[in-house]
Amino acid sequence: MADDEIEVVYRLRADPSGLDARVEALLLEQTVEMGREALRSAHAREHFVGRVIGTEAVGDAEFLVALAQPAEAAAGDPAQLLNVLFGNCSLQDDVELEDVRIPATLVRMLCGPRFGTAGLRQLTGVRGRALAASVLKPMGLSAREAASLCRTLAMAGLDVIKDDHGLADHPGCPFAERVRLCLAATAEAAETTGRRALYVPNLIGSPATVLRQAREASELGAGAVMVSPMLLGLPGFNELVRDLGRPVLAHPAFGGAQRISPVALLGKLFPLFGADAVIYPNTGGRFSYGPEVCAGIARALREPDAAIAPALPVPAGGIRAENAAAVLESYGADTMLLVGGGLLEAPDPGALLARSRQFVGAVHAFPYLP
Amino acid sequence: MADDEIEVVYRLRADPSGLDARVEALLLEQTVEMGREALRSAHAREHFVGRVIGTEAVGDAEFLVALAQPAEAAAGDPAQLLNVLFGNCSLQDDVELEDVRIPATLVRMLCGPRFGTAGLRQLTGVRGRALAASVLKPMGLSAREAASLCRTLAMAGLDVIKDDHGLADHPGCPFAERVRLCLAATAEAAETTGRRALYVPNLIGSPATVLRQAREASELGAGAVMVSPMLLGLPGFNELVRDLGRPVLAHPAFGGAQRISPVALLGKLFPLFGADAVIYPNTGGRFSYGPEVCAGIARALREPDAAIAPALPVPAGGIRAENAAAVLESYGADTMLLVGGGLLEAPDPGALLARSRQFVGAVHAFPYLP
Is the peptide bond before B138 cis (omega within 30 degrees of 0)? Predict the structure, then answer.
C-alpha cells in the first residue's frame, strides 16, 4: 500500500447491476462529496479523489469493496480521519465499515498503544500466563464497600481489579475517595500476598472531567486507568492518552459496533487511538458476538496490521472459574480474562474469596506458550 | 414523570415467552449490571435499580419497552448519562434505543441549545420564512477558492453558507485563512446585497483542536460554527458549547444512527447536548431515512419534550431549487434548507449564481405561518 493512501473496506449491499455506480458514489461521498463531473477544482480532482482497489462478491447482492482514499484528506487529524473512514456513509443503511488500513504517517500521528501488552505485563509482573481481572460493582457501592470488595479480590490473587464502567463520580462513591481507598486496599492485601494487584479506576465524563480524573488518579498512584472511548469520543480519547503516562483499558460502552464491524472498531480503531487493552463482550456471554468475531478481535489486537504495539485482548462476560480454562484454551494465555458476575454473585465474602481463588487458580494453571 | 427518573424506551426483539426475563436483564444491565439476587448492597438495590414502566408489542416478536432508571445513576455527568442510556446495551443486537426523556435536573445540567431557532433567526435577520443555506466544497478547494465560492453564494442571497464537514485544517486550505477570507467575502457581498450572509466554519479535530478553532473563529468574527458531535464525542460537544457564545450547527457525520433511532439521536440527544441546529439527511436524498423519520426529527427539534429551547431542523441532501418549495411544503418554513450539490453542480459561476438565486427565490417565496 502506498504511504499516501488510506485503505478502507466496506461491506456493501447492492444490486449487482448498479454496483459500479454505487461504489463510485461511496468513493466520492467520503472526500469530495460531489459527482466527479462537478469537480471544477483541478486540485480537488487530482488530490482528493480516491480510487477503487477492487470489489468482491460475498453473498447475494453483498460485496466487499476496497477503496484507497488519499491520506491528505485526513489532514493529519484524528477526527478528520474518522470522518473520511465513516463520516457520512455511517448514515447509509447499505454500508458497513469492515476494515481499515492506515498509512504510516497517520499511524505515527495516532501512535497506538503507548504501553500495550508488554507494558501491562511489566506493570503487573505477570509473565508466562494470562492475566486475571475482575470488577468492582454494582453501581451504588460506597467507596468503602468498593475498597472492601477490592481487598477481597486482591487477597484472592487477582492481577487486575477494575471499576465497573458505570462507576462515575457518584456522590455516594466519589472518584478520588474510591481511588484512594482501593489503592490502599491493594497495598494492604499485598502485605499478605506479597504481590500487589493493579487497581484500575474508571475515568468517565466530559473531556475536562476525564483530564481531571486522570490527574487525580496519577497523583494517588493508580498504575492504569479505564476509559470508554465511544463515550468520550475517539479523538478526545486519543488526545487523553498522549499525556496519560500509564496504560489505559478501553471499555466498549456506547460502541453500538454493529454498523462498524466489531473487529474494525474494537480490534483496530480502539488500539490505533491508543488503547493498551481492549475489553470486549466474549462469545457465549450476554452479548451477541460469535466465536469468530471474538477470535478476530483478539487477533487484530495482538497482530496489528499497522506499525503499533500489540494490545491486550480482554474478553469479558459469561466467564467463570469453571470455564476459565476453556476460554483460555480458545484464546491462548496472552489474554486478560475479565470476570464480573461469575465471581461477584457469590453468596458471601467467604464464598467470593474461594470462588475468586478458584478462578485465579484456573488462570495460573494455563500455560503461556508465546 | 418523577424528577428523579430517566425514562428510556427501547425497541426490543424478543420471543414473547422470554420477554419478562429479557426486560429484567436490560433494566439491570444499564445500572447495576448484575442480577437482582446478587445485589448485596442495600443502597444499590434501593437507589440504583430502575423499574419497568411497561411493554407494548409492536410486531412479530418486537416490543417497545419503557424503563425508568434512577436519575442518580447519571451522576450529573453527560458521559455517564449516555452510559446509562445506551452504554452496554448498544452492543446487544436485539436492542435499539428508541426514545429518551430526561428529568429536569439533568436537562439543566446539559442545558440544550444556547441559541436555538430564535437565536439563529435573530443572528441572520431572517423572519417570516425559511432559511436558505449552502455549502463550501469540495474538499481540495484552496481558501481563496472557498472564499470565491462563498462570495458567489452570498451574492445570490443565501442566508447561511457553511463549510463542508470534510473541510478540516488542510495545508492547502488552512482553517484560519479560510475563515478570514470567507468572512471578508460575505462582508464584500453585503456591500452589494445590503444583507450579510452567515458564514459557518466547520470545527473538527480533537477537543483541544476544536477549542482552538472555536477561539480563532470567534476572534475572526464568525457568528456561528459547525461541529460533528459524534466525531467529537457528545460529552466533549456539550463541554464545547458551554463557553462557545454563538450558535452551533451539528453535523451527523459518524452518527451511524441506525442502532439509535435517528429521531432519538439527531432529534433529541444532539439538541439536548447543545446543538442549536441539526443537519440531517433529508428523505429522497442519498440517505436512507424515510419521510416519517425526517418529519419526526424535525418535530423533535421544534417541540422538545425536555425544557430546552427549540432547535432548527436542517434537512440536507437531494434538495434543489426545483423542489425547494415541495420540501418546505412538507416541513413548513421554520426550517433551514441546506443545498450542496443541487447548487454546486452548476457548470460555471454564472449558472451557479443563477441557480442559487432560483433556490433563494423559492425559499423566500414560501410563507412562514407560525
Answer: yes
Please check whether residue B238 is in contact with residue B102, taking contact to mean a CB–CB distance below 8 angstroms: no
How many other C-beta atoms lie within 10 A of the C-beta of residue B24? 13
- B303 near B314, Cβ under 8 Å? no
**A166, A205 Cβ separation under 8 angstroms:** no
**Residue in A309, A362, A328, A252 with CA at minimum distance from that of residue A117:** A309
Please give the residue of chain A at the shortest CA–CA distance from B253: A87
Out of A48, A230, A345, closest to residue B34 by CB? A345
Residues of B in contact with A84 (CB under 8 A): 166
Q: Which residues in chain A touch residue B87, judged by CB atoms under 8 angstroms apart?
A: 165-166, 228, 231, 253-254
Q: Is B17 helix (H, G, I), strand (E, B) or coil?
A: helix
**Least CB-CB distance to A206: which of B25, B78, B91?**
B78
CA B259 from chain centre, in angstroms, equals: 16
What values do phi and psi take at A106, rounded to 5?
Answer: -75, -35
Task: Tell the burial category of B59 from Cβ atoms under 10 Å away from its Cβ (0-12, 13-18, 19+).
Answer: exposed
ipTM field: 0.86
Hey, which residues does A11 pair with through a beta bridge? A64, A96
**CB-CB: which of A252, A259, A344 is closest to B34?**
A344
Global pTM? 0.88
Verify whether the Cβ–Cβ distance B86 to A254 is below 8 Å: yes
- What sign has the CA pseudo-torsion B52, B58, B63, B66? negative
Strand partners, B162: B135, B200
B328, amino acid identity: L
Q: Are strands A95-101 and A5-13 parallel, antiparallel or unpaired?
A: antiparallel
Cβ within 8 Å of residue A254, ≥6 positions away: A228, A230, A231, B82, B83, B86, B87, B90
d(CA B79, CA A205): 5
Domains, chain A, with CATH or none? 5-110 (3.30.70.150), 116-365 (3.20.20.110)
Q: Measuring CA to CA, how many Å separate A37 from each of A28, A33, A40, A44, A139?
A: 11, 12, 8, 12, 56
Phi and psi angles of residue B339, each rounded to the nearest 5 degrees, phi first: -120, 125
Q: DSSP code of B246?
A: S
Residue A359 corresponds to which cell in the numbers above?
478462578
| B298 in Cβ contact with B313 (< 8 Å) | yes
- Kindly determine whether residue B236 and residue A236, on different chains, have CB atoms separated by under 8 Å: yes
> Which residues of chain B are within 8 Å of residue A75 when distances are taken between CB atoms?
168-171
Q: Which residue has the cell 494470562?
A: A130
| C-beta of residue A65 within 8 angstroms of C-beta of residue A21 | no
* Residue B29, H or E segment: helix B19-29
Give pLDDT tens digits along chain B (370 positions). Answer: 568 999 999 999 999 999 999 999 999 999 998 888 888 888 999 999 999 999 999 998 999 999 999 999 999 999 999 999 999 888 887 888 888 888 989 988 888 888 888 888 899 998 888 888 888 999 999 999 999 999 999 998 989 999 999 999 999 999 999 999 999 999 999 999 999 999 999 999 999 999 999 999 999 999 999 999 889 998 999 999 888 999 988 888 888 766 777 888 888 878 877 788 888 888 887 666 889 999 999 999 999 887 788 988 989 888 888 999 999 999 998 898 888 878 888 888 888 888 889 999 999 888 776 5
